[in-house]
Amino acid sequence: MPDEADRQNVVVTDIRMPFFSMVVFMVKWAIAAIPAFIILTVIGVFTWAMLSGLLLSLTIGKKAEAIHATGIEVPSSAPTSGEPPTPPAAESAYLGKIIVKGVSVAPAALGGKGVFGEVKNGGDRAVSKVEITIYCLGKDGNPIFEKSYDPVLVSNMSLEDSNAPLKPGYSRKFSVEVDDAPSEWNGKVEVHVTKIAFAEDQRGT
After folding, report:
1. Please, which residues have CB within 8 angstroms of residue 164's CB and are 6 or more apart in sequence?
2. Which of 89, 99, 118, 126 has the most CB atoms around its CB within 10 Å?
3. What does pTM read for this prediction?
4. What are the DSSP calls for 94-158, one per residue?
5. Boundary-marking domain end, from 75, 96, 122
């Protein structure tokens, strides 16, 4: 047995910290932990971005392999109509069959100037929409202002005469005010057909 001289006395000291000092200590500890929290957040965001990019690249790679293997890209949504829609190329080719004639610039009914003329369907299909663009020319003969108008527009919301399709061989007059043309306008215009739409279930009737 160890004798009494070799024994060491253990003294337990109870530290009583004032409440305010304890609050200050906790605040300092929280401030010291902020850099570590920021570092962990940055690491987490970077890891999530890497994983998202990896998953996205894998998905794109699989789709590209499927397209390469079949040679056909499946559209995300297929048309539900029984008949295939008219391709835009057909409408573009039909633009030349809509003839603009009798174009003139004259005083409008409410004052100012207007552009008058008519469009004729010289093709073999009825159209539900004809959009024309009026180009006001400057002193050098180049366009300086343009305005679009639909002399033919079939719509459930319209009560005008233009609400009927333009049949093959038919014509329809138009008048468009151009009071908002700039002062450099030389009073001359060019009118072009810029867009058409075919009427549904009407072919030469």
Report:
1. 154
2. 126
3. 0.55
4. HGGGEEEEEEEEEE-TTSSEEEEEEEEE-SSS-EEEEEEEEEEE-TTSSEEEEEEEEEEE--TT-
5. 75
Q: Which amino acid makes up residue 198?
A: F
Residue 89, SS3?
helix
pLDDT of 190 reads 97
Name 20's Cβ contacts closer than 8 Å, sequence gap at least 6. none
Question: Domain total for the chain?
Answer: 2
Residue 1 lies in a domain: no
Residue 179 lies in a domain: yes
Contact 100, 124 (CB under 8 A): no
CA-CA distance, 176 to 150, in Å (whole number)? 10
Same domain? 125 vs 174:
yes
182 and 110 housed in the same domain: yes
- 50, 75, 100 — which closes off a domain? 75
What is the four-CA torsion angle of 89, 95, 96, 97, rounded to 10 degrees? Answer: 110
Same domain (yes/no): 64, 140: no
Looking at residue 204, what is its pLDDT?
43
The segments of the chain whose pLDDT lies below 70 read 1-20, 61-87, 158-162, 201-205
